[in-house]
Structure prediction request, 949 residues.
Amino acid sequence: MTVLLILTVLVLVAISIWQITKIFELSQPKKVNTQVADDDDNRWNGQLMFAFLIFIYGITLFSFWKWGDVMLPSASSEHGIEYDNLLWISFAIIFFTQTITQGLLHYFAYKFRGEKGKKAFFYADNDRLEAIWTIIPVIVLAGLILYGLYTWTDIMTVEENEEALVVELYAQQFNWKARYAGDDGVLGDANVRFLQDFDGKNLVGIDATDPNGFDDVVVQELHLPSGREVIFKMRSQDVLHSAYMPHFRAQMNCVPGMITEFAFTPTVTTEEIRQTDAMRAKVKKINKIRREKSEALLAKGEEPLEPYVFDYLLLCNKICGASHYNMQIKIIVETQQEFEKWMNDQQTFAEFIQ
Amino acid sequence: MSAAAHLDEEDHGHHHKETFITKYIFSQDHKMISKQYLITGLFMGIIGIAMSLLFRMQLAWPEQPMGIMSALLGKWAPDGVMDPNVYLALVTIHGTIMVFFVLTAGLSGTFSNLLIPLQIGARDMASGLLNMISYWLFFLSSIIMVGSLFVEAGPAAAGWTIYPPLSALPQAQPGSGLGMTLWLVSMAIFIASSLLGSLNYIVTVLNLRTKGMTMSRLPLTIWAFFVTAIIGVVSFPVLLSAALLLIMDRSFGTSFFLSDIFIQGEVLHYQGGSPVLYEHLFWFLGHPEVYIVLLPALGITSEIIATNSRKPIFGYRAMVASILAIAFLSTIVWGHHMFISGMNPFLGSVFTFTTLLIAIPSAVKAFNYITTLWKGNLQLNPAMLFSIGLVSTFISGGLTGIILGDSTLDINVHDTYFVVAHFHLVMGISALYGLFAGVYHWFPKMFKRMMDKNLGYLHFWVTAICAYGVFFPMHFIGMAGLPRRYYTNTAFPYFDDLANINIVITVFALIAGAAQLVFLYNFIHSIYYGKPTEQNPWRSNTLEWSAPIEHIHGNWEGKIPEVHRWAYDYSKPGQEEDFVPQHIPLKEGEEELQH
Prediction:
């Protein structure tokens, strides 16, 4: 029914456009309508070009004013600070270039709009100008590339060391698990072939012939100590997934058949970030939206939404099937003491398969 | 050109009697084939854009029953709410159709076919037969792709990049069954079509140029089509090999891309393959593909901006050099799609370096366009507006590339809506603008009539505002950390404050969709009722406008015109008119510009 209605409306709109153009044509004095832009067209379209420039500037400012607060808060990891610096430098360059080039483009389109009898300036080439706008981008990009590569090498060089906490992130359609190395600090070998061992209790496929595996701890909640480097070893059992932790500026794909790595040092505990002004304002805003939704739900006799409390996110960021959008695990960043206390309460693999 | 010497002789117009079938269906005439490409491309475009509107509505109003969903999607939208699998299928097929069927075949196929013979002064393509086969393979692949929409379990749904194992295992999602097989078969045929077309373009440009048409006198359109064809020939076969290997993995039990998989309670036999290998093969085409889409659009706008500015294009040599530089670099940057795929981080450094280099020729092009406008006598025809619009979106979208191309920064914006906003502006919208500009500009050449300019203006201004209205706010959703290809973001209350932005984006998208109806109406109406055109309505220099309005086999009656100058003698001092077509001999004492 709706489709029929929409189709009818579309047909009617089409007919009315057709009729209006006809009326428009007939009402025009008998001048030759060539459908080529004349001075009038050049004038009003030139003016619109100028208005469009204001629109581009306007939508930029408006979006920052209105939606600036949805952007991620500053990083909660050590390398994230460096990341944010590079990001804002890049953004500054982008805004500068965008403002100037869009300005010139649309201003010229307005300023040099055509008029009968005017002749354009024959200007085909200028090697000096070409050199200028080749060299300036070269210099700017050289700076960005060097800074970027320096940071990249810093982030991606993962060195095994005594202090670091090794955590395996294990992905499957559609959930995450985490495995901690236990007292020996070494993750036991694992493979999907072992998943059916121990009546399906071998959740991440630990190889029972490897003694290192028995003290491993498999959990469905990711706890990380603040201030200590965490080395993630990522695995997937079925399709590609990607472990995306936006607040830590961290992401790595989980690839079946191989182990991928990413390391970072969390610096802000969950408790701490909840207390920041930015996060309080954000949570308040979200809860206001949720309350409004809840009222609507209650009116329909449905369950209201729960109030929102901030937790760090781990999102799946590689398309992986129907529930890709809902593949979650909670991240809790806490102090070293809290972490150890929590860890002591967990069952090791050996205990779990008993 | 000795190879074409026999074609230079007097052409008597009528070679043989044509039936309806040889003229309109199995035509070997490049002008008819270009129309076939355009109309098929537009038809696919309608499907692709309609799909995007459907999933945009799902994103704006998730889980709300909508009549239009159940009407269009039937059992795939129980109670008017789209199924998550269908959402993924829609984004997959939208991407595939827009990138390959609309912006590769529809854009390049249409204008390379129309303009290469006409602008270089050739009677037709080097091989009319191959050209015809190329179109019909494209048509066949379109039929198969559209047909896959009607498969019981739905079409392919693994994203347009169809990464295995998701695309390889029917157990992983419903769309990886018959729908995916049809996708692969369709793409294999598409690639064959594209290769035949490209080879033909290359041979034609190299061998069939008329007397006097040296490479350095070629219009920039031809340079763009020529280089695009070369990139296509270099990179499309690699996608074909990826598709064939994936077919092997799916149907014959090989393990090219698969290893150690446990799914649906079962350990699969695959050992030793790697999805990362697939990613390399895919993006070896996938990135050059961006330029296969974009370069023809840039070629078209170079021509249109020069003609409508009544000025030579600024820096012809630099424009050609930057096309060549972009083409070369485009084949060595594919890894920037894979910074966090698990490949060696050192490779990431190399690809960051090559990727950011592309910004240099791109900046040169943008500045040259702007300088071409400077002190021009701008004729703001619809085609010109779309060309200026292209430069605008090319800059806005291109600039965010310095964030995405930087491996470090890519870590946190990879696969978020920031990427979606970036590539839609820089290649999607830009290339669409190139397509529209081309249609408005060469419509008189194709259909002997003019399109209505006022509807053209309406079309441009609504589209231009909506394009920014859709994609500018989308950057913010990406900066908030929202991944793309999420059926809804309600599963994470953290993203609840994005709901309003999603509604704004969808409303702009719906208006933009409606504006395209104005274009379609104008297009179809003008074919039959448009004002009859003059021979050279835009007062342009290139050779196609010296051909008669009426389409004849062989393009020119009598001899093919000889070329005496480059294509950009607009407003040349000492000339009466503000344009001097390429076939006009130099006046006494006139010097050819050393460009």
Observations:
- The mean pLDDT of chain A is 92.
- Chain A has eight helices and ten strands.
